[in-house]
Amino acid sequence: MKKKCIAMLLAGGQGSRLYALTQNVAKPSVPFGGKYRIIDFPLSNCANSGIDTVGVMTQYRPLQLNSYIGSGQPWDLDVNDGGVYILPPYQSAGEKGSWFTGTANAIYQNLAFVENYDPDTVVILSGDHIYKMDYADMVREHVEHDAACTISVLTVTLEEATRFGMMNLGPDGYIKEFEEKPKHPKSTLASMGIYVFDWQKLRKYLIQDEADPNSRHDFGHNIIPAMIADGEKIWPYRFNGYWRDVGTIDSLWEANMDMLSPQLIDLYDPEWPISARSPICPPHQVGAHADINHSIVTEGCEIDGILENSVLSPSVHVGVGAHVKYSVLMPGVVVEAGASVEYAIIGENTVVHAGARVGASPAPGADKCITTIGPSLEIPAGSTVKVGAMISTSEEV
Amino acid sequence: MKDFHGLIFAYYTDPKLRELVSMRTAASLPFCGRYRLIDFSLSAMRNAGIVDVGVIMQRDYQSLLDHLGGGKAWDMARRTGGLRMLPPFGLPEYHRGNYAGTMEALIAVSSYIKSVKAKYFVLMLGDMCANIDLTLPMEQHRKSGAPITAICTDRADAEGFRMTYIPGENGKAKQILIDTVDEKEGVLSLEAYIINKETLLELMETSRKQSLYRFHKDTLDNWLKNGGQMDIYIHHGYTALIRNVDSYYKANMDMLDSEIRHELFPTERPVFTKIREEVSTYYGVDSYSRNSLVADNCIIDGSIENCIIFSGARIAVGAKLKNCIVMSDCVVEANCVLDHCIVDKDVSFSAGTVLNGNERLPIIVPKGSHI
User: Fold this and answer.
1) Measuring CA to CA, how many Å separate B295 from each of A97, A277, A293, B66, B281?
2) pLDDT tens digit string along A132-174?
3) Residues 6+ positions from A34 with CB-CB distance below 8 Å
4) For B298-325, how does the pLDDT look when each residue is reduced to its tens digit (9 = 90+)?
5) What is the dihedral of CA B166, B168, B174, B179, to 10 degrees?
C-alpha cells in the first residue's frame, strides 16, 4: 500500500534524568498536563496533520505505552490501511537480533516496515516533546525546496544555543553546518529533533551508516553530518510556536506550568485537539472547603483543599485543609487532610498522608527547587520530604 | 452461546419534563455533568457482559443516535451482534401516533425479537438512573425457574416510581399496584425485568390479539392474576426514574453528595459514555468554586456554588452561579447572576443578566437561547 508520507516516532528512550518517574514506564508515557501523556502530543499532531500511518519504536519498559496506544482509536489512528504500529526490536532467522543502538539504527531495523508503504517522505519524531505542529506544512516546504532532509528549527538566544544542536546556514538558506552544543554558537537556529526525509535518500544513508562500525547510529551525530558532507540539500523549517523538550525534572515541571497559560499553548483550540486515552470518570468535585485558583483540574478529581498554580491529572484527591501549590499531581494521587505539597511532581497513585510536607516554595529571590516523588509510594503522616529530593523507592521515604 | 439479550426502552418521554425534552427523548437527557441517562442501562448491561442490545426508539431520536454512535463507548460495536437501533418498522399504515404502551413497542420490533437466539431478555428503561449489578438478578433468574424476574428497590429516597409489587410469603410477586407508590407494603418497581424469550413472545401474542398494550396494567397484572410466576430481585443502590423537571433537578443535585455519587459511579462498575474532548478545566486567578461538579473543558473565572457544570462552559469574571445545572457549551458573560436555573446546551447569557428561579420551580433556559 503506497503512502505519500508516514511518520516514525522514537519512543524507546529511558528518560534517565526523570528516573523516579520512569522506573517502570517509558518517558513518552509519563502523564503530562492533566489529561495527557507526553506521547499524545506527537500522535495528535500526526492525526491533525493528516498522517494516518505511524510507527512507534519502543524499547525501554514498553508495557504501559503499548496498552496506552492500543489500536490508536483515541487519535483516530485506527484506520484500515495504516494506523499506529508498535515496533519493538526483533530477531530474524539466523541472527541474534539486537536492541536499537541509536535513533538511526531504530529506523534501520524497521526498513521493512517503512518499505511496506513505499513513502515519498518520512517524518521522524521524538516522543518527549510538547508542542503543536502541522507536519503537513513542514512536508510541503520540504517538497517545495527539493530537499533531501528538512529539519525543524527554533530561534533561541545565544546563551541557550550552547545547549542545543545548532544549524548554520549558507547564503542560499540551506543548512551547511551542524554543531552539537557549540561553545561559541554561530547561529541562533536550534534543531528541534524533528526531521522530514526523502525516503530513498534516507534509506541510502541508513544502510551506509549501519556499515560504519565507528558510528553512534544517531541522526544528529551521524546521518545529518554525512548528508551535509555529501552536499545534500538540507532545508531549515522555521517553527515559531510553543515547543519544549521535557527530558529533565525542571523542564517537565516548567512545561506543566505552561499548560496554565493558554497564550503559550492553547489546548482549548477545537481546530487542533490534543487527544488522549481517557479513563471516563464522573466530573470532578469541588468540595465545600475547596479553594482553587489558576489551576487545571479534570475528571474523577475530588478537591476539598487549597489548590494554587497546579496541574492535576484524573482521579486526584486533595483533602480538607491540604495545600497544593505550584505542583504537578499525576493520576490517582491522594493528598490527605492537612498535608502540603509545594513545587513538587508526584507520581501516579502515590499517597501523601495527613499532615505530611512535600517540597516548599523557594525563599524570595532564591531559585526554585523541585521535589519529585515516584509512583505508588506512601509518604507517612506528619513526615517531611526534603526539598529537592527525588524519591523513587519506599526505602528512601 | 450468549444467554442474555438486552432491550432498552427509549421511546417514551414524559411531557412533564417540559422544554428539556422538546428536542430529545428522556433517554438522552444530559446528566451529572457528562452523561446521558441511557448510559446507566447500557453500562449495566455491558458490565454484566451483555453487549447484544436493542434500543427501541420512536421519535425525536436524533440526539440519541448522535450519542450512541456505533456503540463503541459501551463495547457494543461488534461484528456479530452488538448495539442495534430499533426505530419503528412493520407497523400498520394507519398507525402514526405514539406507541400505546410497552407491548406495542415490543410488537413493533417483533421480527427483531424473534430473530434473537438468546434464552432471556433483560428489559430496562432508558431514563433510569441507577447502577445495577445485573449479574445478580441474572443468576437469580436462571435459578428461580420463574419466567419473569422484576427488578425492584426498597430505597425510601428513590424517585419517580409508579408501580409497587406486593411480595407473597414465598418472596415471589403476588400483586402489582398500578400507579401506586407504597414502599411500606411492597417494593418499588424499576420497571426493569428479566424474562424468558418464549414467555415474552407469548405475552406479545396475547397483547396483539386483545389489543391491550400496556405492560403493567394489562399484561403483567393479568400474568399475576392468572397465577403466573414472577420473582423479585431487590436493588439496594441509589435509584431515580427521571419523569419530571423536579426529579431531574433533584437527581442531578443529589450527585453533589459524595456518598450517593460513589454509589452511582463505583469504580468496579464504571458508567461509560461517549467521550467528548480531552482537555482539563481551568480555574482562573480570581475564580471561586464550592460544592460543585465540573466537567472537563470549562474555563471558570467567575463564581460557582452548588452547581453541576457540563463540558465547554465559559464562566466570565464576576458571574455568580448558584444551584444551577449548566449543560454543554454555555457561555456566561461578566456579572451575570443565575440561581436555580437549568440551562440547556449552547445557551449564552450576555453581561449582567439576572435570572432567579427557586427550588420549587427552577427556571429552564431552552437549548440554544441567547439572553
Assistant:
1) 48, 16, 17, 19, 7
2) 999 999 999 999 999 999 999 999 998 888 888 899 999 999 9
3) A259, A296, A297, A298, A311, A312, A313, B279, B280
4) 999 999 999 999 999 999 999 999 999 9
5) 0
Question: Residue A297: its chain B contacts at CB < 8 A?
Answer: 280-281, 283, 294
Distance between start and end Cα atoms, chain A = 54
| Length of chain B counted residue by residue | 371
Domain boundaries defined on chain B: 4-264, 282-365
**Do the interacting molecules here have an ipTM over 0.95?**
no
- Residues near B281 by Cβ (< 8 Å), separated by ≥ 6? A284, A296, A297, A298, B294, B295, B296, B297, B298, B299, B300
- Nearest beta carbon to residue A267 from set B275, B279, B290: B279
B297 and chain A: CB distance < 8 Å anywhere?
A: yes
The torsion angles phi and psi of B300, rounded to 5 degrees, stand at -110, 110
Q: Which fold would CATH assign to domain B282-365?
A: UDP N-Acetylglucosamine Acyltransferase; domain 1 (2.160.10)
pLDDT digits (tens, 9 = 90+) for A333-378: 999 999 999 999 999 999 999 999 999 999 888 889 999 999 999 9
Residues in chain A: 397
Asked if B261 reaches chain A (Cβ–Cβ under 8 Å), the answer is yes
Residues of A in contact with B297 (CB under 8 A): 268
Grid coordinates in use for A22? Answer: 520512569
- Asked if the C-beta of A210 comes within 8 angstroms of chain B's C-beta atoms, the answer is no
pLDDT in tens, A55-85: 999 888 888 888 999 989 999 999 888 899 9
d(CA A64, CA B208): 56
Would you call B278 and A294 a contact, using CB atoms and an 8 Å cutoff?
no
Record the pTM. Answer: 0.91
Residue with cell 535513533: A103
Could you tell me if A124 lies within 8 Å of chain B, comparing CB atoms?
Answer: no
pLDDT of residue B96: 59
Judging contacts by C-beta atoms under 8 Å, the chain B residues touching residue A295 are 282-283
Say how far apart CA B103 and CA B113 lie, in whole Å: 12
Query: How many CB atoms sit inside 10 A of residue B40's CB?
Result: 28
Question: Is B170's pLDDT higher than 90?
Answer: no
Residues 212-251 (B) with a CB less than 8 A from some CB of A:
none
CB contact under 8 A, B261 and A34: no
Which pLDDT does position B183 carry in this prediction? 84
Residues 6+ apart with CB under 8 A from B83: B51, B53, B54, B55, B68, B70, B71, B74, B76, B77
CB pair distance less than 8 Å for B279 and A281: no
Inter-chain touch B273–A288, beta carbons under 8 Å: no
Instruction: Burial-class residue B344 by CB neighbours within 10 Å (0-12, 13-18, 19+).
Output: buried
The reply to whether residue A293 touches residue B285, judged by beta carbons under 8 angstroms, is yes
The yes-or-no answer to whether B4-264 and B282-365 have a common fold is no
For the stretch B50-94, pLDDT in tens is 999 999 998 778 889 999 999 999 999 998 889 999 987 656 655
Residues of chain B contacting A292 with CB distance shorter than 8 Å: 283, 287, 289
Looking at CATH, the fold of the domain delimited by B4-264 is given as Spore Coat Polysaccharide Biosynthesis Protein SpsA; Chain A (3.90.550)
Note whether A283 contacts B277, CB cutoff 8 Å: no
How far is B371 from chain A, CA to nearest CA, in Å? 24
Q: Is B126 left (phi over 0), alpha (psi -120 to 50) or beta?
A: alpha
Alpha carbon distance, N-terminus to C-terminus of chain B: 56
What is the overall mean pLDDT for chain B?
Answer: 92
Neighbour count for residue B206 (Cβ, 10 Å): 15
Sheet holding A357-358, edge to edge: A291-293, A306-308, A323-325, A340-342, A357-358, A384-385
| Torsion angles phi and psi, residue B283, rounded to 5 | -105, 125
